[in-house]
Structures are given as structure tokens and as C-alpha cells.
Design brief:
Layout lengths: L17 H14 L7 H11 L4 H8 L4 E6 L12 H18 L7 E8 L5 H11 L6 E6 L9 E8 L6
Parallel strand pairs: 2-3
Antiparallel strand pairs: 1-4, 2-4
Helix pairs in contact: 2-3, 4-5
């Protein structure tokens, strides 16, 4: 079978192995797009599929830096902060301070990863978290872990996009 030739006379050769066909079909199905080789269609499909991350994808595509920062609770904690709620408030206060230092606020946060040693504290964590973050809420992932460094009960990983400087 001859290779397809476009109007400019260029021969288009594409890998049509069974693996490539399966990958193309998977991309088409998952992202609901027509051409898996079209970068714009893929980007639009990703934004639809991961709507909560669309803000981050758009900002990254426009060249804005995405600022990942890892936050841990303070090493020296008063006795009352051993409770998950107090520890979480301290961690979120630390996040707020670092965001401010970086020229950001909570509305610039696009993703939050929370690690809890006791998943039964999820509703308490969610209630406290909503005191800091406002709608539209950043994408959040909460996982249960066996233990955290330093005996902490909660760990937070926050990503924010620094606003462009005003000229």
C-alpha cells in the first residue's frame, strides 16, 4: 500500500503498529477527541477531563511558573498542637505566611495534597481547610498514611501560581 501524499507532495508516514493504534484509540476515548496527534485537541481534552486542574494547565501553557512548595508542621510544637485540628491550623498558617512571602494568596493555590495519619479526621480537616481556601477550591487530594516525619499527624503539599507582575 502506498503512503498518503498531501497536496504539497509530502509523503506522510505514520506508525500504525497495533500498539500505536491502541494508544491512539485510548487517547481518543479518554479525552473524547478526534485526532490524537493534534496538540490543541489533546490540550482541550485534558482541560475537559481534568476540569479542576484547567486553571493550572492554562497558566502553565501561557508560561507562568507553577510554584510547588512542601510544608511540614513546626518541629517544636506546643502540647495542644498534637491534636490534628491545631496541627492543621498551624500548618495552614505556615502555608499562608509562605504564600504571602512569595506574593501569593490562597486564591492563587491550584492544588493541595493532604496526608493524614488518621483518615477518620477527614471531616475535621475539611472543615478547617475551608476556613482558609475559598471557592473555586483548588484541586485537593487527601490520603491516609501510616506515619509522617517527626510524629506529625498531618502533612500538606501546596502548589500555587504566582500572579504576573503588574507593569
Amino acid at each position: 500500500m502506498p503512503y498518503p501524499v498531501d497536496s504539497a507532495g509530502t509523503v506522510e508516514v505514520s506508525d500504525r503498529t497495533p500498539v500505536a493504534i491502541k494508544a491512539d484509540n485510548l487517547i481518543r476515548q479518554r479525552l473524547r477527541i478526534g485526532d490524537p496527534r493534534n496538540a490543541q485537541e489533546i490540550a482541550d481534552g485534558l482541560k475537559r477531563r481534568f476540569a479542576k486542574d484547567a486553571r493550572a494547565l492554562t497558566a502553565e501553557a501561557q508560561g507562568f511558573p507553577v510554584l510547588p512548595t512542601r510544608f511540614a508542621p513546626a518541629l517544636v510544637r506546643p502540647a495542644e498542637s498534637l491534636a490534628t485540628g491545631a496541627e492543621l491550623r498551624q500548618a495552614l498558617d505556615n502555608v499562608t505566611a509562605v504564600l504571602k512571602e512569595a506574593g501569593c494568596v490562597w486564591t492563587d493555590v491550584i492544588r493541595v495534597n493532604v496526608s493524614l495519619t488518621d483518615v477518620n479526621k477527614f471531616s475535621e480537616m475539611d472543615r478547617i481547610f475551608r476556613d482558609y481556601a475559598r471557592e473555586p477550591y483548588p484541586t485537593r487530594n487527601t490520603i491516609g498514611v501510616k506515619e509522617l516525619w517527626g510524629g506529625a499527624q498531618v502533612g500538606i503539599d501546596v502548589w500555587a501560581i504566582r500572579p504576573a507582575p503588574k507593569s
